[in-house]
Batch of 2 targets.
Target 1
Amino acid sequence: MVGASKAEKGGGPIRLGMVGGGQGAFIGAVHRIAARLDNEFVLVAGALSSDPARAKASAVELGLDPERSYGSFAEMAKAEAKRPDGIEAVAIVTPNNVHFPAAKAFLEAGIHVICDKPVTSTLADAKKLAALVEKTGKVFVLTHNYTGYPMIRQAREMVAKGQLGDVRVVQAEYPQDWLTEALETTGQKQASWRVDPKQSGAGGALGDIGTHAYNLARFVSGLELDSVSADIDAFVPGRLLDDNANVLLRFKAKGKARAAKGMLWASQVAPGNENGLKLRVYGTKGGLEWTQADPNYLWYTPFGQPKQLLTRAGAGATAIAGRVTRVPSGHPEGYLEGFANIYQEAARAIRAARRKGGKPDRDMVFPTVQDGVEGVAFVEACVKSAKKNGAWTKL
Amino acid sequence: MVGASKAEKGGGPIRLGMVGGGQGAFIGAVHRIAARLDNEFVLVAGALSSDPARAKASAVELGLDPERSYGSFAEMAKAEAKRPDGIEAVAIVTPNNVHFPAAKAFLEAGIHVICDKPVTSTLADAKKLAALVEKTGKVFVLTHNYTGYPMIRQAREMVAKGQLGDVRVVQAEYPQDWLTEALETTGQKQASWRVDPKQSGAGGALGDIGTHAYNLARFVSGLELDSVSADIDAFVPGRLLDDNANVLLRFKAKGKARAAKGMLWASQVAPGNENGLKLRVYGTKGGLEWTQADPNYLWYTPFGQPKQLLTRAGAGATAIAGRVTRVPSGHPEGYLEGFANIYQEAARAIRAARRKGGKPDRDMVFPTVQDGVEGVAFVEACVKSAKKNGAWTKL
Amino acid sequence: MVGASKAEKGGGPIRLGMVGGGQGAFIGAVHRIAARLDNEFVLVAGALSSDPARAKASAVELGLDPERSYGSFAEMAKAEAKRPDGIEAVAIVTPNNVHFPAAKAFLEAGIHVICDKPVTSTLADAKKLAALVEKTGKVFVLTHNYTGYPMIRQAREMVAKGQLGDVRVVQAEYPQDWLTEALETTGQKQASWRVDPKQSGAGGALGDIGTHAYNLARFVSGLELDSVSADIDAFVPGRLLDDNANVLLRFKAKGKARAAKGMLWASQVAPGNENGLKLRVYGTKGGLEWTQADPNYLWYTPFGQPKQLLTRAGAGATAIAGRVTRVPSGHPEGYLEGFANIYQEAARAIRAARRKGGKPDRDMVFPTVQDGVEGVAFVEACVKSAKKNGAWTKL
Amino acid sequence: MVGASKAEKGGGPIRLGMVGGGQGAFIGAVHRIAARLDNEFVLVAGALSSDPARAKASAVELGLDPERSYGSFAEMAKAEAKRPDGIEAVAIVTPNNVHFPAAKAFLEAGIHVICDKPVTSTLADAKKLAALVEKTGKVFVLTHNYTGYPMIRQAREMVAKGQLGDVRVVQAEYPQDWLTEALETTGQKQASWRVDPKQSGAGGALGDIGTHAYNLARFVSGLELDSVSADIDAFVPGRLLDDNANVLLRFKAKGKARAAKGMLWASQVAPGNENGLKLRVYGTKGGLEWTQADPNYLWYTPFGQPKQLLTRAGAGATAIAGRVTRVPSGHPEGYLEGFANIYQEAARAIRAARRKGGKPDRDMVFPTVQDGVEGVAFVEACVKSAKKNGAWTKL
């Protein structure tokens, strides 16, 4: 039962700006807590809303210096780049279609970017963005937050070390129920932009949560996806984007082993599921199961032996899980802590970039722009496959 | 906390014979316990093995009259049909390929049939059998035993009554792990015939357990399947039949509602899964979830309300569940009781047939030869789809 | 996934009679199913009710020979003892106060006894009965049925083998909710006799379910109880016997280890608990947890290692569990199978007694009249302690 | 699925100091994260260790102004009280025996106190402290952090509103396993002071975790404890304080209802339990069950209806739970968020005190010095009872 204050640093926190996340938004507040939790970041500037009044009111509520509350991300990138105390990194927490232009503006202004997923609303933009990250050399962190959960880190390590043998089957699912009815017609802000192709891109449930499930499957299995066969539906009358997606997965073969197969289900119309993200990975030597709603547990079965319940910071936890753990086993950590772990990794990367010749932390692990490209490619391949009546489609 | 001895009858038990189920078999013993549990059947004859020595030894062990231990099902059908005290029904518990000829022999001899699943090893045989059942007017019960679980009965009733609204999504899965390695090469009898196309038919995991998952999905949802897109693998080197099947499902539309979609996963190579049969059904008004390993529970979520844990014989249990329940809530019933419920329904049907002009019980519910046809059609459609690289294939 | 027909015998079944268990009773039907499940017993005689009309109707329903449906247990004991085909054993399933006179009558008539718990309604009677069993040499099986669950057998073995080290703490509980309101005033038969001191004895919840929890704690831990401190209540106005009992336990020391301690909670007024029997045992080297509602699982934690989920017939199951198991892992067994295991052990004992010089099965394990004495002693000690404001009271 | 940034304020954060919590400590880091999570506090001063070198090093690590890193709490209280920018509140996170003198020093210096539990190491000190809080009028918050969990708040509200009817039975337990062996002899700091009567007071497991369980039982049930009967042990050889406590509880009657009863188990030697705090409350109309390891769930059974699984921010969550919730349902919150909720309530109280004539928030709910007195009284009553062989002892 060792405690840990590992993330607390004597050095000054990183100056952070935010695009989006004003009043009425959900994910902005999550980013702010995640940034603050380990004392690694301090929020000093924002372009918090495309609506000027809301932007201003939000800035006041957050205690920002009024001078540093901007009317647009473009203005903010420009102004902050000039200040000696300007932001070192920006968090982009807008609807998907704004990710690309905003990220572009900050990268070109020499500012690191922490960006919500999916990385962009089109694959073409995602690729352009990846090229820009490469060119500028800036840190780019994509908040596929579920990869921040300690037991997910451990699961990834177990697979990488061969504890499951050759992976054969990967089952990923992310069911929700909040869009079972036409919530978007009630003016609910979260629902409205998510079902609008202009703001979300080609995928509905696929883009919003399918990308999380897919990212997690890749992150833990260490496999690359070859192709998909998808059957997608918009069950709620009048909805333009999918609210349920059933997808078959074929991974690329690794070594001599037969290529792994899988299924992915993303749904926003499955009553009784709040955020039912679940991942199961099975190999020749064992199996793993993990559920987001109960993230401190990882079920592990070495084939032919009893099932083990590994717990965060518990008897079977490894160093890699411990590195992103704050409290002893049996004291649950949750969504915010997992999210904060992504911010913590971002901080490490940004601090490494601060130092001349600073070597990046060997254990530093966070979703990158390349993961973002993969995610958007996944969405577009699914949509393409679905239009071709489920034809197998390469990513 | 009232108990129930509802199945105990003053009338004499039904005389039963058995084909297969000799020493070393698994499912034969299950059928015998199921037949005996409610005192509805008495086992009086058998052709317990194709190996004469094993047949004889098995009959002795079971206390059968040596005269009524036969060397073949053909001989048994003939001899028993002639006896005034001959069997009224036969249980067929052999490998799949024997189902058809054996069932044919008994139906033609005027004997009711209780048959293990899948009903036959080819669709052509299944259809012939269905015609024969029709022609002879005999009772034919297919032991899709999972439909016997009380909470599954209740789930079916809830869907039928509209408590879920229009069904949109059906997720069915049946993972196991016992064939993760090449158990069939060790002489293990259960494994050997299941991976042999000559004895099993076109499906491996698909036929053995996929048919169960599919049958349950149909039984509960009340939907008919339109077509499938399947990706199947034999992961264990040298295995000829699938040990993992990932299948997309399209159901037929019902009324004006958009057609329901689903996925079905059957696997025998998923370490950590013993008999992980699970069914989830989601509609416009609510969702249901049920797991075979914990069959006394049924999760029900009316959309927008808290999740409810319905329990067998508990506060939320309905009459339809109570009808196939023996002990009070909180005292778990299991696999054998569920199996016995199929035998109990069979007994009702056979007793009704005994009576002149006897009306069949309105509530009588058991899987029929037609369900068997559907099951084999499902397997063959999946195999066909898989051979065409997942092309959508009608049943 | 090996099957098992281990309990099926070529030899003829044991002839069984029953006292109590007529229409409206609960536990009688359970005993009959348990006796029948493995084909070890055949019910041939009964004194099924103290109400002659009900006794007769019940006998007809069960298909008993009318000659062998008796008006009283005394008559039955006498008549059956004289018949060449008379019963070899009797199941006594009446309210508690009838256990003693009925058991006495049959033992003295040379008939083995299978008796429901608590063994008698007073400690004095229990001791007399124990002496009589000793004197007659007959088999006496007390149906503390929960000791029949396979994982409970395994738990007991694990403790005996030292896998938990020295036992320090034992926590047993058996909460129910069915007597939360005054059900006994509605004419419900099960409730009525249980709350009546004349029929039940000194304990209400204590006698009905507390004895089960206590018996299980002893059975698994292998410890003997030294003394109790109890606080008991009848929460429902007008009720004469306890419906909630909170008890502290002190076990006798074993070897040099400090004596183990524990708590026991029995309640019939705890809404949300159907049959919440639960046992937890903790020692210097590990811990075990088991819950009756999910009996196929046994949680085992070797200290300092991850928690393991042992499953009936699964990877970590031992031979001792396998011996009382009928179906493969992942196919749940329940209450009736556990109950049948007691009958199976009884059959082994009775068959051994049949044989001249027959050696009893070394592994034969069932609750005896001595366990019954312990149970009634526990109830009386608790009631005595409660009357003395919780003074520690020896058994 | 709306998000919430409810705790973020435009006003400046509260200036906080800390006593204890230097390197090697566990709970100090937890307090710092909890204070920071909602941006309500800023840590500006500390007396972080009684070891000067460790105090200095810890202050550097936390980025404190060296001038405000003090060698003792006395010095700190004096110095900070004089500064115009001095701390407004102090968090005391030392071993128990330091709580009283430190709290006294700060209260007398006019500084609000946030103090870990148990409030003091003796009941006499606790009473003195309560008087001092009364006299000074300062805010005093005791971090019984489990009362901060949203579903615990909801449980309390449900009981208060009568949804359970009259409470009859309260079962509280807090098992752990980390002291199963003599960890204190290895130099482990957390273990060492907890088993030392000079630093901990009269209770071992009782004081460390039993007080939490007791506090939670009172908080949710709304009942006051009348007396206890305790049986306590130090199972690990050489240990001076209890590592296992079995306690019977008698609550004071409320209105005409029969007084409620309960049991409390606190253990640090129960292998397989990490932080198994669990509370169950049963009344005439329903029951509630909650487990700390899975804090986002609250089981609720209205008597005679199906069990409901209430979830934080889910369909059945009430406003009172929503008030201390940050993320949507299905995204788990954990220990740190619950702890932060106590800090959030403290902030509200301190801000109210800032304002002239400021009315305290009606919904403001946090454990007070009076709860602390109750907790120490509970520990001392248990120890007293145990010494008198379990005699019922008034608090």
Note: Residues 1-8 of chain B have pLDDT under 50 and may be disordered.
Target 2
Amino acid sequence: MDLDALTHTSGEWLRATGPDSDIVMSSRIRLARNLADYPFPNRASDAVRADIEQLLRGEIAKSPAGKKLQYVQIDALETLDRQFLVERQLISRELSENHGQRGVGISPEENVSLMVNEEDHLRMQVLRSGFALEECWRDIDAIDDAIESSVTYAFSEQFGYLTACPTNVGTGIRVSVLLHLPGLVMTKEIQKVFQALQKIGLAVRGLYGEGSQAMGDFYQISNQATLGKGEEQIIKTIKDVIPNILAYERKVRTTLVQENRQNLHDQVSRALGNLKHARQISSEETMHLLSSVRMGINLGLIHDLEIPTLNELFIHTQPAHLQKLRHERMETAERNAARADYIRQRLTVPPSTN
Amino acid sequence: MDLDALTHTSGEWLRATGPDSDIVMSSRIRLARNLADYPFPNRASDAVRADIEQLLRGEIAKSPAGKKLQYVQIDALETLDRQFLVERQLISRELSENHGQRGVGISPEENVSLMVNEEDHLRMQVLRSGFALEECWRDIDAIDDAIESSVTYAFSEQFGYLTACPTNVGTGIRVSVLLHLPGLVMTKEIQKVFQALQKIGLAVRGLYGEGSQAMGDFYQISNQATLGKGEEQIIKTIKDVIPNILAYERKVRTTLVQENRQNLHDQVSRALGNLKHARQISSEETMHLLSSVRMGINLGLIHDLEIPTLNELFIHTQPAHLQKLRHERMETAERNAARADYIRQRLTVPPSTN
């Protein structure tokens, strides 16, 4: 896979074409699976890890979905390229930072990624733009079935799929939806949402998953428990609760526009002005301003700019992307200048038509 | 004089054509004079004020300079129009807020204004763009001589010209230079300048003179004493000290650009971005941002924008100007929106060629 070629593109899941994509950035389902005959990666020697990697790489290549995937040997990549894949959400931080032989199979649309020797032997992930959990489930279930038909997963009649960390035992499923909730953040209603979600066993995380800060008003809602419920039931819990959050976010946005249109218009327009004129800008400020502009577009306060462009900018302004775009290593100050240049260039040319 | 016609124009002194106009916005000299045979305005009855006004209006009309002046009866104007003339620096706050019959003769270029029944019977003012005190003095001295040839001024052999307030007795002269000193403000060196000026008997005031706040990094430097020194000597004191301040401001600007070009470029560029994108903006923030942009143009960090446009915006975004432009009375919130609209419109069309 030519990683450099990816720098100017963006994954299918950023195209903002899916349902409710004004608020739902993406839907994602990942499954954690392990081979029955091998120790978990954290217990495996380098030689055993190499065996696992070779075996699963072969199985992926043979599977129907795998035929379209490009396989990237993660341990052969430089730090910058690994970070680049993390920023695109194609691999996890865990896979990037792990040691030993490991890899990932990535679909050309960047919506399927199968990670080998992450925390578990196999982590399969399907991403979709917008609110599309059923499609994610259909795709990942097919991929899982195909691989399971030729390997023996570690499975217990009592517990279900066995995983390196007990939090994934059972279904091994993590269902998550990435939401853009600037209205609830602005009106400070977001805490109520978090409390309600916690009560039904759902977790709230930032853009880059576990332990990451909630930047740019993005929140990942996902299931905590993987045990004691079937996959469909876990998906249904999230699928049922999300529309309530969407309705809540839309309601506060409408109220904000009705009661304070001028203030809101001023804020989103100035955010765009700062993005278009900054000569140096941090990643954090970028996320914050892009978030305002994204809401401004959705509320019809900003024209001549498209959501996919904004979605791309969230990813393309991350450190590794900037450095790959410039083909050079850069320190923070240089990145802040390069980021400002890139944003200015992207926002002052006519929006792309795709 | 058609005040409405003025709303879209700006005075000669804003054209930034004079010497050192990167830093010196304008030079101004005013003379305070009183008629020998009448009490000072604050001691005069309404009937006597009316007599004074009629007499001086006639004298102004007869004088060589007066033939070109348009005379405006201030007491016949609405509050908004009076405020409008204050904002353009054509009349003082005192003349605007005084009572009884009073007026002002204004030259078409808006660089001469002769106020009748201000604190004194006659206040004569000449404004010039840039650092041009000698030209101001030549013009105002000629106007003063012409009027003095046909009226008798209150004059004491011992003290000189007599005035309503003792601070103006003697020469009745106030010499002032309006400086834009963003570099000295940013580097916090400005206090040193103030202290040095105070030691040589010069006062520092804001854009609108006595009691006004220093907004947008504008400072008026003027003489305190009018007694005990001749006019030329007072002018010379200011004329000699200003080049030192200009050199100081230019030095800190150069240092700022050399040592912190990126930060400075970011700051001035974002200031322009906010001006171009705001949907509501206060007068104070406007001054602050325009000040940054003005410095950015002078330092070559901002292109495609001319200093006269900026100078005009400082005046045209004042409350009365905005209301006259819109032909309606507006509360603060409405003005903040109108101001943002006006600025956006002025900064997004190509700069005027005059």
Note: Chain A touches chain B through 17 residues (CB under 8 Å).
